[in-house]
Write a structure and sequence with these properties.
By secondary structure, the protein is an alpha/beta fold. The protein has a single domain, classed as Dihydrofolate Reductase, subunit A, CATH 3.40.430.10. Helix content is about 20%, strand content about 25%. It has a nine-stranded mixed β-sheet, with helices on both faces. The radius of gyration is 17 Å and the shape is globular. The two termini are about 30 Å apart. Bound molecules: NADP nicotinamide-adenine-dinucleotide phosphate (NAP). NADP nicotinamide-adenine-dinucleotide phosphate binds next to strand 1, helix 3 and helix 6.
């Protein structure tokens, strides 16, 4: 079970991978860090599971993406900024929300780069949203991810990078729209109730093929790809 030798540049390695966009939507990758027992957060945040190498992968993936897609809960908890402000990428942020609860001091409301897109269902009224967002309807009672992906495709996006949270990742799995999954396995056991990298929907029967294994010290970096339906 060989693991490749030292990688000169994680940016080049990830950027050189082929990611052919399927018909009608962008290529969809997701990036998550988890403990060995599948916890997605420690003390409510993912940072406690991360490392410098994991942050390097996080940045390298963002550099490949046209859009960073995130659920509103994660954007609020992790105090999301515009990806261009966070460095190393031209990607635009897209946030999925039903409540349209965006704190006035949410960092992504200001800064360089285009205003983030805020996908919401038609049942919620964007009139009370703060400035600094571009609201778009995608669904009636809740946001439907296939509508989000076809809308981003119409914008010209070729790669969307989902950064969670787990519930949003589960929704991508549920609609068979996950092409590539990056999982950093953090060498720790956490337990508790913040366990389950794809949330608590399902059960799903979504097979994956192992595309790459990297490691740094005790941390593993796994890349999986979803098998393509025969054309
Ligand atoms: N380990 C990792 O890599 C990683 C990555 C990301 C997040 N996390 C962690 O995950 C936790 C947050 O996860 P979470 O499950 O609590 O929240 P979440 O999945 O990030 O966000 C849930 C919220 O997203 C919105 N949402 C999701 N799907 C929607 C849909 N189809 N339609 C409308 N709105 C939708 C809703 O926002 P509204 O409430 O605005 O309606 C919902 O309350 C945090 O602890 C964070 O640190 C870990």
């Amino acid at each position: 079970m060989p693991i490749p030798g030292p990688v000169d540049s994680i940016e080049s390695l990830l950027a050189e991978d082929d990611r052919p966009a399927p018909a009608g939507r962008p290529w969809v990758a997701a990036n998550m860090v988890g403990s060995v027992d599948g916890a997605f957060a420690r003390d409510g945040r993912s940072g406690g599971l991360s490392s410098e190498a994991d942050r390097a992968v996080f940045r390298a993936l963002r550099a490949c993406a046209d859009v960073v897609l995130v659920a509103a809960g994660t954007a609020r908890t992790e105090r999301y900024r515009r990806p261009v402000e966070a460095g190393g990428t031209r990607a635009r942020l897209a946030v999925v929300s039903g409540s349209l609860e965006v704190p006035e001091d949410q960092p992504f409301l200001t800064g360089a780069g285009p205003d983030p897109i805020l996908y919401h269902p038609s049942s919620s009224d964007p009139a009370r949203l703060p400035a600094g967002l571009e609201p778009r309807v995608a669904g009636s009672d809740r946001v439907e991810l296939p509508l989000v992906l076809s809308d981003l495709h119409a914008d010209g996006a070729r790669m969307v990078l989902c950064e969670g949270g787990p519930g949003l990742l589960g929704q991508l799995v549920a609609c068979s729209a996950l092409d590539e999954l990056f999982v950093t396995v953090s060498p720790t056991l956490v337990g508790g109730d913040q366990v389950g990298l794809v949330g608590h929907g399902g059960p799903y029967d979504h097979g994956l093929g192992l595309h790459r294994v990297l490691r740094e010290d005790d941390m593993l970096f796994l890349t999986y790809r979803s098998p393509r339906e025969p054309a």
